[in-house]
Amino acid sequence: MSDGHSASVDVLVIGAGGCGLTAALAAQEAGVDVAILEKAGSLGGNTALSSGSIPAAPTRFQACAGVEDSVALFAGDLRAAAGSHDADPLVDILAETSGALIDFLVDCGVTLDLITTYKHVGHTTCRLHAPPSRKGVDLLDDLAAAVRERDIPLALGHPATGLIEVQGRIAGALAGDDRIEAGAVILACNGFGAASGLLADYCPSVAEATYAGSPDSTGDAIAWGRDIGAATGNMAAYQGHAALSVKNGALMTWTLIERGGFVVDRHGRRFGDETLGYSGFADLELAAAGPFHIIYDAPIRDDVAAGQPQFAEACAFGAAETASDIRQLAARLDLPEDALAATVDDSRRAARGNRCDRFGRTDWGHGPLGDPLCATQIEPALFHTQGGLKIDTSARVLDTDDRPIPGLYAGGGAAMGISGRSGGSGYMSGNGLLSALGLGLIAGRAAARERYH
Ligand SMILES: Cc1cc2nc3c(=O)[nH]c(=O)nc-3n(C[C@H](O)[C@H](O)[C@H](O)COP(=O)(O)OP(=O)(O)OC[C@H]3O[C@@H](n4cnc5c(N)ncnc54)[C@H](O)[C@@H]3O)c2cc1C
Protein backbone atom coordinates (compact mmCIF):
# COMPACT_ATOMS: atom_id res chain seq x y z
CA MET A 1 0.00 0.00 0.00
CA SER A 2 1.43 3.43 -0.83
CA ASP A 3 0.39 6.93 0.15
CA GLY A 4 -2.94 8.24 -1.05
CA HIS A 5 -4.33 4.91 -2.30
CA SER A 6 -7.66 3.38 -1.58
CA ALA A 7 -8.42 -0.30 -1.36
CA SER A 8 -11.31 -2.48 -0.42
CA VAL A 9 -11.54 -5.76 1.45
CA ASP A 10 -14.25 -7.82 3.13
CA VAL A 11 -12.68 -7.78 6.60
CA LEU A 12 -9.95 -5.40 7.76
CA VAL A 13 -7.96 -6.34 10.88
CA ILE A 14 -6.12 -3.59 12.76
CA GLY A 15 -3.13 -4.96 14.66
CA ALA A 16 -1.00 -8.03 13.96
CA GLY A 17 -0.54 -9.50 17.43
CA GLY A 18 -2.08 -12.74 18.63
CA CYS A 19 -5.61 -11.40 18.33
CA GLY A 20 -5.25 -9.87 14.87
CA LEU A 21 -3.45 -12.81 13.28
CA THR A 22 -5.94 -15.31 14.72
CA ALA A 23 -8.87 -13.14 13.59
CA ALA A 24 -7.45 -12.89 10.08
CA LEU A 25 -6.89 -16.65 9.83
CA ALA A 26 -10.41 -17.35 11.11
CA ALA A 27 -12.06 -14.86 8.75
CA GLN A 28 -10.20 -16.17 5.74
CA GLU A 29 -11.04 -19.76 6.65
CA ALA A 30 -14.69 -18.66 6.74
CA GLY A 31 -14.36 -17.60 3.10
CA VAL A 32 -13.85 -13.84 3.01
CA ASP A 33 -11.00 -11.60 1.85
CA VAL A 34 -8.97 -10.24 4.74
CA ALA A 35 -6.15 -7.73 5.13
CA ILE A 36 -4.16 -6.67 8.19
CA LEU A 37 -2.74 -3.26 9.07
CA GLU A 38 0.14 -3.22 11.57
CA LYS A 39 1.58 -0.08 13.10
CA ALA A 40 5.07 -1.43 13.87
CA GLY A 41 7.68 -2.08 11.22
CA SER A 42 8.05 -5.67 12.38
CA LEU A 43 5.85 -8.12 14.24
CA GLY A 44 5.96 -7.97 18.03
CA GLY A 45 3.40 -6.49 20.39
CA ASN A 46 2.62 -7.99 23.75
CA THR A 47 2.07 -11.42 22.26
CA ALA A 48 5.79 -11.66 21.46
CA LEU A 49 6.72 -10.53 24.98
CA SER A 50 4.45 -13.05 26.67
CA SER A 51 5.22 -16.56 27.86
CA GLY A 52 2.71 -17.79 25.32
CA SER A 53 0.53 -19.55 27.91
CA ILE A 54 -3.04 -20.12 26.73
CA PRO A 55 -5.55 -21.67 29.15
CA ALA A 56 -8.06 -24.04 27.58
CA ALA A 57 -10.34 -26.90 28.58
CA PRO A 58 -11.00 -29.62 27.66
CA THR A 59 -8.32 -30.15 25.02
CA ARG A 60 -6.67 -32.96 23.09
CA PHE A 61 -3.47 -32.31 25.05
CA GLN A 62 -5.24 -32.69 28.38
CA ALA A 63 -6.84 -35.93 27.19
CA CYS A 64 -3.40 -37.31 26.22
CA ALA A 65 -1.96 -36.33 29.59
CA GLY A 66 -4.92 -37.81 31.49
CA VAL A 67 -5.94 -34.40 32.87
CA GLU A 68 -9.65 -34.19 33.67
CA ASP A 69 -11.10 -30.76 33.07
CA SER A 70 -14.27 -29.14 31.80
CA VAL A 71 -15.66 -25.87 30.51
CA ALA A 72 -17.67 -25.50 33.72
CA LEU A 73 -14.60 -25.98 35.93
CA PHE A 74 -12.61 -23.50 33.85
CA ALA A 75 -15.38 -20.88 33.87
CA GLY A 76 -15.78 -21.42 37.62
CA ASP A 77 -12.07 -20.77 38.20
CA LEU A 78 -12.20 -17.59 36.10
CA ARG A 79 -15.19 -16.30 38.07
CA ALA A 80 -13.68 -17.22 41.43
CA ALA A 81 -10.61 -15.12 40.60
CA ALA A 82 -12.35 -12.13 39.04
CA GLY A 83 -15.63 -11.78 40.94
CA SER A 84 -18.41 -9.87 39.22
CA HIS A 85 -17.54 -7.49 36.39
CA ASP A 86 -18.77 -5.94 33.15
CA ALA A 87 -17.73 -8.86 30.92
CA ASP A 88 -19.39 -11.77 32.70
CA PRO A 89 -21.02 -13.23 29.52
CA LEU A 90 -17.58 -13.40 27.91
CA VAL A 91 -16.36 -15.79 30.61
CA ASP A 92 -18.61 -18.61 29.40
CA ILE A 93 -18.08 -18.01 25.70
CA LEU A 94 -14.29 -17.89 26.11
CA ALA A 95 -14.23 -21.04 28.24
CA GLU A 96 -16.53 -22.79 25.73
CA THR A 97 -14.40 -21.69 22.78
CA SER A 98 -11.05 -22.51 24.37
CA GLY A 99 -10.86 -26.18 23.35
CA ALA A 100 -11.78 -25.35 19.75
CA LEU A 101 -9.23 -22.53 19.86
CA ILE A 102 -6.41 -24.95 20.65
CA ASP A 103 -7.56 -27.21 17.79
CA PHE A 104 -7.72 -24.22 15.44
CA LEU A 105 -4.22 -23.06 16.38
CA VAL A 106 -2.70 -26.51 16.00
CA ASP A 107 -4.45 -26.96 12.65
CA CYS A 108 -2.93 -23.63 11.56
CA GLY A 109 0.53 -25.02 12.37
CA VAL A 110 1.09 -23.53 15.83
CA THR A 111 3.26 -25.80 17.98
CA LEU A 112 1.88 -26.12 21.50
CA ASP A 113 2.05 -28.49 24.41
CA LEU A 114 0.36 -28.74 27.78
CA ILE A 115 2.31 -27.33 30.72
CA THR A 116 2.30 -30.02 33.40
CA THR A 117 5.13 -28.72 35.59
CA TYR A 118 3.03 -25.86 37.03
CA LYS A 119 -0.57 -24.60 36.97
CA HIS A 120 -0.33 -21.06 38.35
CA VAL A 121 -2.65 -19.64 40.93
CA GLY A 122 -6.37 -19.99 40.32
CA HIS A 123 -6.27 -22.84 37.81
CA THR A 124 -7.46 -25.94 39.64
CA THR A 125 -5.81 -28.21 37.11
CA CYS A 126 -3.20 -28.20 34.33
CA ARG A 127 -4.76 -26.27 31.45
CA LEU A 128 -2.07 -23.84 30.27
CA HIS A 129 -0.87 -24.61 26.74
CA ALA A 130 2.27 -22.95 25.39
CA PRO A 131 5.02 -23.24 22.78
CA PRO A 132 7.70 -25.70 23.94
CA SER A 133 10.09 -22.75 24.45
CA ARG A 134 7.46 -21.04 26.69
CA LYS A 135 8.05 -17.93 24.61
CA GLY A 136 5.21 -15.94 23.06
CA VAL A 137 7.44 -14.95 20.17
CA ASP A 138 7.27 -18.54 18.92
CA LEU A 139 3.48 -18.47 19.09
CA LEU A 140 3.49 -15.23 17.10
CA ASP A 141 5.97 -16.61 14.55
CA ASP A 142 3.81 -19.69 13.97
CA LEU A 143 0.70 -17.55 13.49
CA ALA A 144 2.58 -15.23 11.13
CA ALA A 145 3.80 -18.21 9.10
CA ALA A 146 0.20 -19.38 8.73
CA VAL A 147 -0.84 -15.91 7.58
CA ARG A 148 1.97 -15.88 5.00
CA GLU A 149 1.13 -19.39 3.75
CA ARG A 150 -2.45 -18.30 3.16
CA ASP A 151 -1.38 -15.13 1.31
CA ILE A 152 -3.24 -12.84 3.69
CA PRO A 153 -1.98 -9.30 2.99
CA LEU A 154 -0.18 -7.84 6.03
CA ALA A 155 1.00 -4.22 5.80
CA LEU A 156 3.78 -3.60 8.35
CA GLY A 157 4.58 -0.02 9.32
CA HIS A 158 1.03 1.04 8.42
CA PRO A 159 -0.74 2.34 11.53
CA ALA A 160 -4.47 2.78 11.22
CA THR A 161 -5.24 6.38 12.07
CA GLY A 162 -9.02 6.36 12.27
CA LEU A 163 -12.23 4.56 11.39
CA ILE A 164 -14.47 5.31 8.42
CA GLU A 165 -18.08 5.65 9.48
CA VAL A 166 -20.89 5.78 6.94
CA GLN A 167 -24.43 6.29 8.23
CA GLY A 168 -23.74 4.67 11.57
CA ARG A 169 -21.88 1.72 10.10
CA ILE A 170 -18.11 1.18 10.26
CA ALA A 171 -17.04 0.89 6.65
CA GLY A 172 -13.27 0.72 6.86
CA ALA A 173 -10.28 2.56 8.27
CA LEU A 174 -7.79 5.25 7.39
CA ALA A 175 -4.05 4.68 7.44
CA GLY A 176 -2.58 8.12 6.97
CA ASP A 177 -3.54 9.12 3.44
CA ASP A 178 -4.64 5.59 2.57
CA ARG A 179 -8.30 4.68 2.74
CA ILE A 180 -9.26 1.02 3.16
CA GLU A 181 -12.93 0.26 2.77
CA ALA A 182 -14.16 -2.88 4.46
CA GLY A 183 -17.37 -4.74 5.18
CA ALA A 184 -16.21 -5.16 8.76
CA VAL A 185 -13.30 -3.95 10.88
CA ILE A 186 -11.72 -5.92 13.73
CA LEU A 187 -9.86 -3.85 16.31
CA ALA A 188 -6.93 -5.96 17.51
CA CYS A 189 -4.54 -3.16 18.48
CA ASN A 190 -4.36 -3.94 22.23
CA GLY A 191 -4.99 -1.68 25.22
CA PHE A 192 -3.51 1.45 26.75
CA GLY A 193 -0.54 0.27 28.82
CA ALA A 194 1.75 2.70 26.97
CA ALA A 195 -0.69 5.64 27.13
CA SER A 196 0.27 7.50 30.30
CA GLY A 197 -2.77 9.80 30.22
CA LEU A 198 -5.30 6.97 29.99
CA LEU A 199 -3.40 5.01 32.64
CA ALA A 200 -3.47 7.96 35.02
CA ASP A 201 -7.22 8.32 34.43
CA TYR A 202 -8.21 4.67 34.77
CA CYS A 203 -5.44 2.79 36.61
CA PRO A 204 -3.76 5.45 38.78
CA SER A 205 -2.29 2.96 41.28
CA VAL A 206 -0.16 1.36 38.59
CA ALA A 207 0.44 4.41 36.39
CA GLU A 208 3.92 5.04 37.82
CA ALA A 209 5.03 1.39 37.88
CA THR A 210 7.56 -0.03 35.44
CA TYR A 211 5.73 -0.88 32.23
CA ALA A 212 6.90 -4.16 30.71
CA GLY A 213 4.54 -4.31 27.75
CA SER A 214 4.71 -3.11 24.16
CA PRO A 215 5.22 0.61 23.44
CA ASP A 216 2.62 0.25 20.68
CA SER A 217 -0.27 -0.30 23.14
CA THR A 218 -1.29 3.33 22.87
CA GLY A 219 -5.04 2.94 23.36
CA ASP A 220 -6.01 3.74 19.75
CA ALA A 221 -9.07 1.46 19.83
CA ILE A 222 -10.37 3.19 22.96
CA ALA A 223 -9.97 6.64 21.41
CA TRP A 224 -11.70 5.69 18.14
CA GLY A 225 -14.42 3.80 19.97
CA ARG A 226 -15.21 6.74 22.19
CA ASP A 227 -15.47 9.04 19.18
CA ILE A 228 -18.26 6.91 17.72
CA GLY A 229 -20.15 6.34 20.98
CA ALA A 230 -18.82 2.90 21.95
CA ALA A 231 -19.10 1.79 25.56
CA THR A 232 -16.12 0.58 27.60
CA GLY A 233 -15.86 -1.94 30.42
CA ASN A 234 -13.58 -3.00 33.27
CA MET A 235 -11.35 -0.01 32.55
CA ALA A 236 -9.55 -0.08 35.91
CA ALA A 237 -8.41 -3.73 35.59
CA TYR A 238 -4.95 -4.80 34.49
CA GLN A 239 -2.37 -7.57 34.52
CA GLY A 240 0.39 -6.67 36.89
CA HIS A 241 3.39 -8.80 37.73
CA ALA A 242 5.03 -8.76 41.13
CA ALA A 243 8.33 -10.25 40.04
CA LEU A 244 10.33 -8.46 37.40
CA SER A 245 14.02 -9.08 38.14
CA VAL A 246 15.70 -5.79 39.04
CA LYS A 247 19.05 -7.21 37.95
CA ASN A 248 18.20 -7.93 34.33
CA GLY A 249 14.52 -7.10 33.74
CA ALA A 250 13.67 -10.79 33.29
CA LEU A 251 10.31 -12.10 34.36
CA MET A 252 10.75 -14.21 37.51
CA THR A 253 8.29 -17.06 37.40
CA TRP A 254 5.74 -17.20 40.21
CA THR A 255 6.42 -20.94 40.39
CA LEU A 256 9.16 -19.96 42.87
CA ILE A 257 6.34 -18.89 45.17
CA GLU A 258 4.07 -21.80 44.33
CA ARG A 259 6.85 -24.21 45.36
CA GLY A 260 7.19 -22.54 48.77
CA GLY A 261 9.01 -19.23 48.30
CA PHE A 262 7.83 -15.90 49.69
CA VAL A 263 8.43 -12.16 49.28
CA VAL A 264 10.02 -9.77 51.79
CA ASP A 265 10.12 -5.99 51.86
CA ARG A 266 12.94 -3.60 52.78
CA HIS A 267 12.56 -4.59 56.44
CA GLY A 268 13.05 -8.29 55.69
CA ARG A 269 9.39 -8.97 56.49
CA ARG A 270 6.54 -10.50 54.54
CA PHE A 271 3.57 -8.21 53.93
CA GLY A 272 0.83 -10.36 52.37
CA ASP A 273 -0.33 -13.74 51.09
CA GLU A 274 1.76 -14.44 48.02
CA THR A 275 -0.68 -17.10 46.83
CA LEU A 276 -2.92 -14.23 45.74
CA GLY A 277 -0.98 -14.64 42.49
CA TYR A 278 1.63 -12.59 40.69
CA SER A 279 -0.83 -10.01 39.40
CA GLY A 280 -2.72 -9.41 42.65
CA PHE A 281 0.49 -9.42 44.69
CA ALA A 282 1.85 -6.64 42.47
CA ASP A 283 -0.88 -4.42 43.96
CA LEU A 284 0.47 -5.18 47.46
CA GLU A 285 4.02 -4.37 46.40
CA LEU A 286 2.90 -1.08 44.88
CA ALA A 287 1.50 -0.13 48.29
CA ALA A 288 4.50 -1.40 50.31
CA ALA A 289 8.12 -0.35 50.85
CA GLY A 290 10.67 -1.88 48.47
CA PRO A 291 13.17 -3.11 47.54
CA PHE A 292 11.50 -6.53 47.43
CA HIS A 293 13.09 -9.97 47.29
CA ILE A 294 11.71 -13.43 46.60
CA ILE A 295 13.25 -15.87 49.08
CA TYR A 296 13.41 -19.52 48.02
CA ASP A 297 15.88 -22.38 48.31
CA ALA A 298 18.33 -24.18 46.05
CA PRO A 299 16.10 -27.23 45.43
CA ILE A 300 13.31 -24.89 44.23
CA ARG A 301 15.81 -23.00 42.07
CA ASP A 302 17.07 -26.18 40.43
CA ASP A 303 13.63 -27.74 40.04
CA VAL A 304 12.15 -24.61 38.42
CA ALA A 305 15.21 -24.03 36.21
CA ALA A 306 14.89 -27.59 34.90
CA GLY A 307 11.30 -27.00 33.75
CA GLN A 308 11.36 -23.33 32.74
CA PRO A 309 14.12 -22.30 30.32
CA GLN A 310 13.51 -18.57 30.82
CA PHE A 311 14.20 -18.88 34.55
CA ALA A 312 17.30 -20.97 33.83
CA GLU A 313 18.50 -18.19 31.51
CA ALA A 314 17.84 -15.54 34.17
CA CYS A 315 19.84 -17.60 36.70
CA ALA A 316 22.70 -17.85 34.21
CA PHE A 317 22.69 -14.04 34.11
CA GLY A 318 22.98 -13.87 37.90
CA ALA A 319 19.35 -13.21 38.87
CA ALA A 320 19.48 -15.74 41.74
CA GLU A 321 21.67 -15.00 44.79
CA THR A 322 22.60 -18.09 46.82
CA ALA A 323 23.80 -17.91 50.42
CA SER A 324 24.96 -20.58 52.83
CA ASP A 325 23.12 -19.11 55.82
CA ILE A 326 20.81 -16.28 56.91
CA ARG A 327 23.68 -14.03 57.95
CA GLN A 328 25.27 -14.23 54.51
CA LEU A 329 21.91 -13.80 52.78
CA ALA A 330 20.99 -10.74 54.86
CA ALA A 331 24.39 -9.19 54.15
CA ARG A 332 24.12 -9.82 50.41
CA LEU A 333 20.61 -8.38 50.24
CA ASP A 334 21.37 -5.54 52.65
CA LEU A 335 18.44 -6.56 54.88
CA PRO A 336 18.27 -6.63 58.71
CA GLU A 337 19.53 -10.08 59.72
CA ASP A 338 17.28 -10.56 62.76
CA ALA A 339 14.10 -9.65 60.91
CA LEU A 340 14.98 -11.84 57.93
CA ALA A 341 15.84 -14.78 60.21
CA ALA A 342 12.50 -14.39 62.04
CA THR A 343 10.62 -14.25 58.72
CA VAL A 344 12.30 -17.41 57.41
CA ASP A 345 11.65 -19.16 60.71
CA ASP A 346 7.97 -18.14 60.75
CA SER A 347 7.49 -19.30 57.18
CA ARG A 348 9.05 -22.68 57.97
CA ARG A 349 6.73 -23.16 60.93
CA ALA A 350 3.68 -22.15 58.89
CA ALA A 351 4.72 -24.50 56.09
CA ARG A 352 5.07 -27.36 58.60
CA GLY A 353 1.61 -26.54 59.93
CA ASN A 354 3.01 -25.63 63.35
CA ARG A 355 1.44 -22.19 63.30
CA CYS A 356 -1.12 -20.20 61.32
CA ASP A 357 0.30 -17.77 58.83
CA ARG A 358 -0.58 -14.21 59.84
CA PHE A 359 -1.53 -13.42 56.24
CA GLY A 360 -3.65 -16.55 55.90
CA ARG A 361 -1.37 -18.40 53.49
CA THR A 362 -2.05 -22.13 53.60
CA ASP A 363 -0.31 -23.41 50.47
CA TRP A 364 3.45 -23.71 50.92
CA GLY A 365 4.13 -25.85 47.87
CA HIS A 366 6.85 -28.37 48.62
CA GLY A 367 6.97 -27.42 52.31
CA PRO A 368 9.43 -25.47 54.47
CA LEU A 369 12.45 -23.93 52.77
CA GLY A 370 15.75 -25.73 53.27
CA ASP A 371 19.33 -24.53 52.91
CA PRO A 372 21.04 -23.03 51.06
CA LEU A 373 18.64 -20.14 50.62
CA CYS A 374 18.32 -18.16 47.40
CA ALA A 375 16.94 -14.70 46.66
CA THR A 376 16.08 -12.53 43.70
CA GLN A 377 15.45 -8.81 43.89
CA ILE A 378 12.18 -7.98 42.18
CA GLU A 379 9.95 -5.03 41.39
CA PRO A 380 6.27 -4.78 40.46
CA ALA A 381 5.37 -4.04 36.86
CA LEU A 382 2.38 -3.38 34.66
CA PHE A 383 2.09 -5.90 31.81
CA HIS A 384 -1.09 -4.83 30.10
CA THR A 385 -4.44 -3.19 30.69
CA GLN A 386 -7.55 -5.35 30.88
CA GLY A 387 -10.17 -2.67 30.25
CA GLY A 388 -11.41 -1.90 26.78
CA LEU A 389 -14.32 -1.59 24.41
CA LYS A 390 -17.50 -3.28 25.52
CA ILE A 391 -18.35 -6.21 23.25
CA ASP A 392 -21.01 -8.91 23.10
CA THR A 393 -20.36 -12.66 22.87
CA SER A 394 -19.82 -12.33 19.09
CA ALA A 395 -17.10 -9.71 19.75
CA ARG A 396 -19.31 -6.96 18.28
CA VAL A 397 -18.51 -3.55 19.78
CA LEU A 398 -21.48 -2.16 21.72
CA ASP A 399 -22.61 1.41 22.10
CA THR A 400 -23.60 2.97 25.40
CA ASP A 401 -27.14 1.57 24.95
CA ASP A 402 -25.70 -1.94 24.50
CA ARG A 403 -26.51 -2.00 20.78
CA PRO A 404 -23.90 -3.43 18.38
CA ILE A 405 -22.16 -0.83 16.23
CA PRO A 406 -22.58 -2.34 12.75
CA GLY A 407 -19.35 -3.48 11.14
CA LEU A 408 -17.14 -3.13 14.24
CA TYR A 409 -15.53 -5.93 16.27
CA ALA A 410 -12.83 -5.98 18.94
CA GLY A 411 -10.70 -8.55 20.73
CA GLY A 412 -7.60 -8.96 22.86
CA GLY A 413 -6.45 -5.90 24.74
CA ALA A 414 -8.69 -3.63 22.64
CA ALA A 415 -11.78 -5.19 24.23
CA MET A 416 -12.81 -5.36 27.87
CA GLY A 417 -11.19 -8.31 29.62
CA ILE A 418 -12.47 -10.93 32.03
CA SER A 419 -10.17 -10.10 34.95
CA GLY A 420 -12.47 -8.18 37.24
CA ARG A 421 -13.51 -4.56 37.47
CA SER A 422 -10.36 -3.08 38.88
CA GLY A 423 -6.81 -3.77 39.99
CA GLY A 424 -4.63 -6.77 39.25
CA SER A 425 -6.04 -9.39 41.58
CA GLY A 426 -8.74 -10.66 39.18
CA TYR A 427 -6.18 -11.58 36.54
CA MET A 428 -5.60 -15.31 36.23
CA SER A 429 -2.60 -16.57 34.29
CA GLY A 430 -3.49 -16.80 30.61
CA ASN A 431 -6.41 -14.36 30.62
CA GLY A 432 -4.53 -12.08 28.22
CA LEU A 433 -3.98 -14.61 25.46
CA LEU A 434 -7.34 -16.29 26.05
CA SER A 435 -9.01 -12.95 25.29
CA ALA A 436 -6.63 -12.21 22.43
CA LEU A 437 -6.76 -15.52 20.59
CA GLY A 438 -10.24 -16.60 21.72
CA LEU A 439 -11.87 -13.32 20.79
CA GLY A 440 -9.76 -13.21 17.62
CA LEU A 441 -11.29 -16.53 16.59
CA ILE A 442 -14.79 -15.40 17.52
CA ALA A 443 -14.43 -11.98 15.87
CA GLY A 444 -12.92 -13.37 12.66
CA ARG A 445 -15.75 -15.86 12.22
CA ALA A 446 -18.48 -13.38 13.19
CA ALA A 447 -17.13 -10.64 10.91
CA ALA A 448 -17.05 -13.11 8.01
CA ARG A 449 -20.65 -14.12 8.75
CA GLU A 450 -21.73 -10.48 8.83
CA ARG A 451 -20.11 -9.96 5.45
CA TYR A 452 -22.29 -12.68 3.94
CA HIS A 453 -25.57 -11.30 5.26
C1 LIG B 1 5.88 -9.75 29.70
C2 LIG B 1 4.48 -10.21 29.41
C3 LIG B 1 4.17 -11.56 29.61
C4 LIG B 1 2.87 -12.01 29.35
N1 LIG B 1 2.59 -13.36 29.46
C5 LIG B 1 1.35 -13.80 29.15
C6 LIG B 1 1.04 -15.20 29.13
O1 LIG B 1 1.90 -16.07 29.28
N2 LIG B 1 -0.25 -15.57 28.90
C7 LIG B 1 -1.22 -14.65 28.63
O2 LIG B 1 -2.37 -15.03 28.45
N3 LIG B 1 -0.94 -13.33 28.54
C8 LIG B 1 0.31 -12.89 28.78
N4 LIG B 1 0.58 -11.56 28.67
C9 LIG B 1 -0.47 -10.68 28.14
C10 LIG B 1 -0.60 -10.95 26.63
O3 LIG B 1 0.67 -10.86 26.04
C11 LIG B 1 -1.55 -9.95 25.96
O4 LIG B 1 -2.75 -9.89 26.68
C12 LIG B 1 -1.86 -10.38 24.53
O5 LIG B 1 -0.67 -10.69 23.84
C13 LIG B 1 -2.61 -9.29 23.80
O6 LIG B 1 -2.71 -9.63 22.44
P1 LIG B 1 -3.20 -8.54 21.40
O7 LIG B 1 -3.18 -9.18 20.07
O8 LIG B 1 -4.45 -7.92 21.90
O9 LIG B 1 -2.09 -7.40 21.49
P2 LIG B 1 -0.58 -7.34 20.87
O10 LIG B 1 0.05 -8.67 20.84
O11 LIG B 1 0.12 -6.26 21.60
O12 LIG B 1 -0.86 -6.91 19.39
C14 LIG B 1 -1.41 -5.64 19.08
C15 LIG B 1 -0.77 -5.14 17.80
O13 LIG B 1 -1.48 -3.99 17.36
C16 LIG B 1 -0.55 -3.06 16.84
N5 LIG B 1 -1.16 -1.73 16.82
C17 LIG B 1 -1.37 -0.88 17.86
N6 LIG B 1 -1.97 0.23 17.41
C18 LIG B 1 -2.15 0.08 16.06
C19 LIG B 1 -2.70 0.90 15.04
N7 LIG B 1 -3.18 2.12 15.28
N8 LIG B 1 -2.70 0.42 13.76
C20 LIG B 1 -2.20 -0.80 13.47
N9 LIG B 1 -1.65 -1.60 14.40
C21 LIG B 1 -1.64 -1.17 15.69
C22 LIG B 1 0.65 -3.20 17.76
O14 LIG B 1 1.82 -2.71 17.14
C23 LIG B 1 0.68 -4.72 17.99
O15 LIG B 1 1.49 -5.37 17.04
C24 LIG B 1 1.87 -11.08 28.91
C25 LIG B 1 2.20 -9.73 28.71
C26 LIG B 1 3.50 -9.30 28.95
C27 LIG B 1 3.83 -7.86 28.69
From TrEMBL:
<protein>
    <submittedName>
        <fullName>FAD-dependent oxidoreductase</fullName>
    </submittedName>
</protein>
<keyword id="KW-0285">Flavoprotein</keyword>
<dbReference type="GO" id="GO:0008202">
    <property type="term" value="P:steroid metabolic process"/>
</dbReference>
<feature type="domain" description="FAD-dependent oxidoreductase 2 FAD-binding">
    <location>
        <begin position="10"/>
        <end position="421"/>
    </location>
</feature>
<dbReference type="InterPro" id="IPR050315">
    <property type="entry name" value="FAD-oxidoreductase_2"/>
</dbReference>
<dbReference type="InterPro" id="IPR036188">
    <property type="entry name" value="FAD/NAD-bd_sf"/>
</dbReference>
<keyword id="KW-0560">Oxidoreductase</keyword>
<dbReference type="Pfam" id="PF00890">
    <property type="entry name" value="FAD_binding_2"/>
</dbReference>
<dbReference type="InterPro" id="IPR027477">
    <property type="entry name" value="Succ_DH/fumarate_Rdtase_cat_sf"/>
</dbReference>
<dbReference type="InterPro" id="IPR003953">
    <property type="entry name" value="FAD-dep_OxRdtase_2_FAD-bd"/>
</dbReference>
<keyword id="KW-0274">FAD</keyword>
<dbReference type="GO" id="GO:0016491">
    <property type="term" value="F:oxidoreductase activity"/>
</dbReference>
